[in-house]
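Example record for the data management plan.
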Amino acid sequence: MSANPQLAQSYVGRCIYHPDYGSDPDRLLVAIPRLLQGQPPLVFALLDKASPWSMLPASLSIDLGCDMSPDPYVPPLRTARVGRIAGRFERLWVQFPPSDGDPLDVLVTFYLSPDWSGPLVIGWKGCLEGLRFALDPGEDRFYFAPL
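Corresponding structural encoding:
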């Protein structure tokens, strides 16, 4: 079988992800390192292609100075962890720091709710849908690039 050049992709950076990071109830199946708003410390986020939105824990949202009052014009979100929650959208800068290559800075739309006590989640809408990314589970590597 010959190689198909249309399957080749290029990425600006890669980093190591941590499988099964943490402990229940916040065990992250695929934890990727992130910087929020360009500020240390480095935090780990659950990479979740099935999550409609990226989420910040309420405590971290408050630390970043975000308004936590739900927006009546934003529809509630149904979560497996806490059920239906009310919230608001907030755009924050997230950096994908590489172990190899260049960092990638992305303006991410987060769904913020005072009722979200779960982990930091990197979800589909407003983030992953606008990236080229790949996982290599053989080497626990996360590859990333802008579209």
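Summary line stored alongside the record: The first strand starts at residue 13 and ends at 16.
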